[in-house]
Amino acid sequence: MNVKILAALGAIALLSACSNDDQNAAATGAGGSGGLAGAGGMGNVRPGSQEDLVANVGDRVFFDTDSSQVRADGRDVLQRQAAWLARYPQVTVYMEGHADERGTREYNLALGQRRANNARDLLVAAGVSGQRIQTVSYGKDRPAALGSDEASWAQNRRAVTTVR
């Protein structure tokens, strides 16, 4: 009888701990909910920071295989980044070019550089001073997703804007 009571109390304690963790994650913005910083959920995000860029605008655009042309959905992200950068004229950024694991290191470094340059050029065309954007290529050296499948490769074919 005592074992059943202890087991029931233990189960209740575990459930309440899980419930509190979920509530804490929601209150702090943890857990990957992707909420907006300005929407009251993540009031601790500093305006003009990398976290602000990620939460409110998006920090990356994606590319097709062996292509350095920014896709249409990426152009929208870069337009939002240009508007965000106009609000924070003191912010300078790196535009990082990345590639998936296929191909040689040299090929992927060159492809990553072309991707970074094209994303940078679209920001400049949208009114951002080119002096505020430095490009760098990591090729296949910094994958966002590990794996040798199309889903992983698609996540790794990207350009990422990072606040300096």
From TrEMBL:
Subcellular location: Cell outer membrane
The keyword Membrane is assigned to this record: yes
Topology of the protein relative to the lipid bilayer: Lipid-anchor
CDD domains: OmpA_C-like
Record-annotated OmpA-like domain positions: 50-164
Domain of life: Bacteria
Entries under Pfam families matching the protein: OmpA
SUPFAM superfamilies per UniProt: OmpA-like (SSF103088)
Task of the protein: Part of the Tol-Pal system, which plays a role in outer membrane invagination during cell division and is important for maintaining outer membrane integrity.
Subunit structure, interactors included: The Tol-Pal system is composed of five core proteins: the inner membrane proteins TolA, TolQ and TolR, the periplasmic protein TolB and the outer membrane protein Pal. They form a network linking the inner and outer membranes and the peptidoglycan layer.
Protein name (Swiss-Prot/TrEMBL): Peptidoglycan-associated lipoprotein
